[in-house]
């Protein structure tokens, strides 16, 4: 199974080394063994140098000046501490494995081998950059060559048996090695380059991309193609470059299972994990680099299916970007890496979109740059140009966009996006955005592996994230994951049964045996449902979310469990930072800001948290509240994390269903950004929302002022004016022009027939999908759908004229 611990090590370390990469020094000394036949490869080396070092900025201007100085300091440290010995190039980076195999200990040794090449890459960049204090330094050049020779003679060489993690040998080490070969090309002899290329050929043979399976899919395939392409550039081998170009083609088509991009905008890696914000970021960045490297050459990527990737910028990535951050719901294990939060993960995606635009149409390039400018300008919490983990090439690309006065920044896109192929949803409204994470028989509860994300157990149990436009953008950035109660993630229903670190197994192995997960959307509003089975638990529940204009209506029913522990639904769990003095009001009564404070709120109608938003409980509810300081360490959830103890204040609201509930339920409205007055007014307007059903069989609501009726039919039945003969999700919206839209889906992807009746006078059917085999109008609308099993849970829309 693929491992991202070494990917994490490689990316995190290379982020530090490239953070100071900037205007490259064009060495004047010609390479003695270069010939005119090398012109094409020399051009490719020059292009790659500019791509990995950056261009178009002043090394004496900030933030570049400081980054370049830091690069020089880091490189000087590596040069001065280098001590070649058997089994190591640096004393703290021993790569010799006394018992070479593929156990966790061996993973550590192979990672140190790759890290050694990354350190040499740091030194090579400092040598080639201006403003590092080591530009063109002869002693540094000698140290770099010495290091390459040492690693080639001892460990990374043709004939060497692989140990530890495959990633270290096939991606981590060769990418860094080949970068150094490009940067130091004039300092290396043909014999040296030949041996280094032979080593790459040994560990990354052509067969590595012979089939689109295993560790050669998605982001991993793009990384392997980068290795092959640069191997061709360094060795002057046209066939290698052509192979790399052609091996990208399997990445482009949309997939219907396994790793890759899906028609609905989903991106999956490791077979079961939504990974748009982590592996998807790597793939996007890698494709941008290769498209730019080969553009205008004999090896240009011309496969027309590459348009799928261009379309995915707005179909797959943009829905998960908000004010510069990328949502944690699609970041997998990366949420447990303390050095890079959601904002710092988002910024490289912005930079990659800018780079990808160089290979797209002029219209796409301009629009994407305008989107990026908007995201970057709005990131008040973590401005991209202050991101210490963003490479200097990324900084340069984002600064060029921010400085481009011809660009008008585009606002955040509005609307709802449902991603049934990865059990995710995003909802974006003026002033706020939300994201929902679920799990089903195809999508894991969560991913752990390599000692990462050890307590992400319930992130797929209906976790509801939300952010404001100018507030709470650090909600999940500010030490949230090591300090939050992992059994009380916002929106989730969970048993308090104690789970072991990594419960369920590594690499997304644990998936609930459920089919009904998904919903319907008209791209503005949505009805979404999850049949929940708890991880390593007897918990069962039906959960529904109705995403509307200014609120998310949350219903739960049929909640049962025999774990012998309490079961809770967490209404919200807000990270209030180190101080945590946000005022909290319940039914107009201010509650203490002291910590710890707790209370059982009996018959609560509404609550409000200052600077965040409001909560409404239709008909009143008994809710528990807690304001507390919580402490934790990144090491607690990631074996490679910091041991520093962090403390944050939380305000938690939850419904306690008691121990071993038999048929519990809940209902509440979330109003992001609402004032106390608006929250109280919504609670007082008891007719605004009507809960039509909240049972184990159906859950539904109507909002007369919106002309909306929405129902999740877990089983066929009658709810309000809607009758369904089988499980489905339905949303009906009556418009002011005398028409109505009926949205239907089969989240189970199993119906060969479905009959839906809407008891409302309808004069005609204006449009319908091909799956509607019969549409009868009159006093009621009767729709008979044909085979929905192939629609992959997508929404079917029928437009009608009201009588």
From TrEMBL:
<feature type="signal peptide">
    <location>
        <begin position="1"/>
        <end position="34"/>
    </location>
</feature>
<feature type="domain" description="Polysaccharide lyase family 8 C-terminal">
    <location>
        <begin position="690"/>
        <end position="755"/>
    </location>
</feature>
<dbReference type="InterPro" id="IPR019546">
    <property type="entry name" value="TAT_signal_bac_arc"/>
</dbReference>
<feature type="domain" description="Polysaccharide lyase family 8 central">
    <location>
        <begin position="416"/>
        <end position="675"/>
    </location>
</feature>
<feature type="active site">
    <location>
        <position position="270"/>
    </location>
</feature>
<dbReference type="InterPro" id="IPR014718">
    <property type="entry name" value="GH-type_carb-bd"/>
</dbReference>
<dbReference type="InterPro" id="IPR006311">
    <property type="entry name" value="TAT_signal"/>
</dbReference>
<comment type="similarity">
    <text>Belongs to the polysaccharide lyase 8 family.</text>
</comment>
<keyword id="KW-0456">Lyase</keyword>
<feature type="active site">
    <location>
        <position position="279"/>
    </location>
</feature>
<protein>
    <submittedName>
        <fullName>Lyase</fullName>
    </submittedName>
</protein>
<dbReference type="GO" id="GO:0016837">
    <property type="term" value="F:carbon-oxygen lyase activity, acting on polysaccharides"/>
</dbReference>
<dbReference type="Pfam" id="PF08124">
    <property type="entry name" value="Lyase_8_N"/>
</dbReference>
<dbReference type="InterPro" id="IPR012970">
    <property type="entry name" value="Lyase_8_alpha_N"/>
</dbReference>
<feature type="domain" description="Polysaccharide lyase 8 N-terminal alpha-helical">
    <location>
        <begin position="48"/>
        <end position="373"/>
    </location>
</feature>
<dbReference type="InterPro" id="IPR004103">
    <property type="entry name" value="Lyase_8_C"/>
</dbReference>
<dbReference type="Pfam" id="PF02884">
    <property type="entry name" value="Lyase_8_C"/>
</dbReference>
<dbReference type="InterPro" id="IPR008929">
    <property type="entry name" value="Chondroitin_lyas"/>
</dbReference>
<dbReference type="InterPro" id="IPR011071">
    <property type="entry name" value="Lyase_8-like_C"/>
</dbReference>
<dbReference type="InterPro" id="IPR011013">
    <property type="entry name" value="Gal_mutarotase_sf_dom"/>
</dbReference>
<dbReference type="InterPro" id="IPR003159">
    <property type="entry name" value="Lyase_8_central_dom"/>
</dbReference>
<dbReference type="GO" id="GO:0030246">
    <property type="term" value="F:carbohydrate binding"/>
</dbReference>
<feature type="active site">
    <location>
        <position position="333"/>
    </location>
</feature>
<keyword id="KW-0732">Signal</keyword>
<dbReference type="Pfam" id="PF02278">
    <property type="entry name" value="Lyase_8"/>
</dbReference>
<dbReference type="GO" id="GO:0005576">
    <property type="term" value="C:extracellular region"/>
</dbReference>
<dbReference type="InterPro" id="IPR038970">
    <property type="entry name" value="Lyase_8"/>
</dbReference>
<dbReference type="GO" id="GO:0005975">
    <property type="term" value="P:carbohydrate metabolic process"/>
</dbReference>
């Amino acid at each position: 199974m693929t491992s991202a611990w070494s990917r994490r090590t490689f990316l995190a370390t290379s982020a530090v080394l490239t953070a100071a990469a900037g205007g490259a020094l064009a060495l004047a000394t010609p390479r003695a063994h270069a010939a005119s036949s090398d012109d094409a490869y020399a051009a490719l080396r020059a292009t790659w140098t500019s791509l990995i070092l950056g261009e178009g900025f002043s090394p004496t201007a900030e933030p570049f000046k400081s980054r370049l100085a830091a690069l020089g300091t880091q490189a000087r440290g590596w040069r001065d501490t280098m001590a070649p010995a058997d089994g190591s190039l640096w004393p703290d980076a021993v790569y010799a494995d006394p018992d070479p195999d593929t156990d966790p200990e061996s993973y550590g040794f192979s990672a140190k081998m790759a890290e050694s090449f990354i350190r040499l890459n740091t030194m090579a960049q400092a040598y080639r950059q201006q403003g590092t204090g080591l530009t063109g330094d002869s002693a540094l050049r000698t140290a770099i060559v010495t290091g390459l020779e040492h690693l080639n003679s001892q460990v990374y060489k043709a004939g060497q048996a692989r140990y530890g993690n495959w990633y270290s040998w096939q991606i981590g080490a060769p990418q860094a090695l080949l970068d150094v070969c490009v940067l130091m090309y004039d300092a290396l002899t043909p014999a040296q380059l030949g041996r280094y290329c032979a080593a790459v050929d040994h560990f990354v043979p052509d067969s590595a991309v012979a089939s689109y399976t295993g560790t050669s899919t998605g982001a991993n395939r793009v990384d392997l193609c980068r290795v092959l392409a640069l191997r061709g550039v360094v060795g002057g081998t046209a066939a290698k470059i052509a192979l790399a170009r052609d091996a990208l083609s399997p990445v482009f088509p949309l997939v219907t299972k396994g790793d890759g991009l899906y028609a609905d905008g989903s991106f999956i890696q490791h077979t079961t994990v939504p990974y748009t914000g982590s592996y998807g970021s790597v793939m996007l960045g890698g494709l941008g680099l290769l498209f730019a490297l080969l553009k205008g050459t004999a090896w240009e990527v011309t496969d027309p299916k590459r348009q799928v990737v261009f379309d995915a910028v707005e179909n797959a990535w943009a829905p998960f970007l908000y004010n510069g951050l990328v949502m944690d719901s699609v970041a997998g294990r990366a949420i447990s890496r303390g050095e890079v939060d959601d904002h710092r993960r988002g910024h490289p995606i912005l930079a990659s979109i800018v780079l990808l635009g160089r290979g797209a149409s002029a219209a796409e390039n301009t629009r994407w740059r305008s989107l990026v400018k908007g995201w970057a300008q709005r990131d008040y919490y973590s401005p991209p140009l202050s991101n210490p983990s963003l490479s200097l090439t990324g900084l340069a690309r984002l600064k060029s966009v921010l400085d481009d006065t011809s660009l008008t920044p585009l606002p955040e896109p509005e609307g709802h996006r449902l991603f049934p192929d990865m059990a995710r949803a995003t909802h974006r409204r003026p002033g706020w955005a939300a994201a929902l994470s679920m799990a089903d028989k195809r999508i894991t509860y969560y991913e752990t592996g390599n000692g990462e994300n050890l307590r992400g157990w319930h992130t797929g149990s209906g976790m509801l994230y939300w952010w404001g436009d100018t507030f709470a953008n650090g909600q999940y950035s500010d030490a949230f994951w090591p300090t939050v109660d992992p059994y009380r993630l916002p929106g989730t229903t969970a048993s308090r049964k104690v789970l072991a670190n990594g419960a369920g197994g590594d690499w997304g192995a644990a998936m609930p045996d459920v089919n009904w997960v998904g919903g319907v959307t008209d791209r503005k509003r949505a009805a979404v449902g999850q049949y929940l089975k708890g991880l390593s638990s007897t918990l069962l529940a039906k959960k529904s979310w109705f995403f509307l204009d200014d609120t998310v209506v949350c219903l739960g029913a049929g909640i049962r469990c025999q774990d012998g522990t309490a079961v809770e639904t967490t209404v919200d769990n807000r990270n209030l930072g180190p101080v945590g003095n946000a005022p909290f009001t319940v039914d107009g009564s201010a509650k203490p800001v002291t910590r710890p404070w707790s209370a059982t709120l009996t018959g609560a109608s509404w609550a409000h948290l200052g600077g965040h938003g409001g909560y409404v409980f239709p008909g009143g509810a008994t809710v528990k509240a807690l304001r507390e300081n919580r402490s934790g360490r990144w090491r607690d959830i990631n074996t490679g994390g910091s041991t520093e103890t962090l403390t944050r204040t939380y305000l938690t609201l939850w419904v306690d269903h008691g121990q071993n509930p038999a048929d519990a339920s809940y209902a509440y409205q979330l109003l992001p950004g609402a004032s106390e007055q608006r929250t109280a007014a919504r609670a007082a307007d008891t007719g605004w929302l009507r809960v039509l059903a909240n049972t184990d069989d159906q859950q539904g609501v109507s909002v007369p002022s919106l002309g909306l009726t929405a129902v999740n039919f877990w089983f066929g039945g009658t709810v309000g004016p809607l009758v369904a003969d089988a499980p489905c999700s339905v949303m009906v919206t009556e418009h002011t022009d005398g028409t109505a839209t009926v949205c239907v889906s089969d989240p189970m992807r199993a119906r060969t027939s479905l009959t839906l009746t809407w008891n409302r006078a309808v004069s005609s059917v204006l449009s319908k999908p091909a799956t509607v085999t019969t549409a009868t109008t009159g006093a009621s609308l009767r729709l008979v759908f044909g085979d929905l099993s192939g629609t992959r849970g997508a929404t079917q829309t029928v437009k009608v004229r009201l009588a």
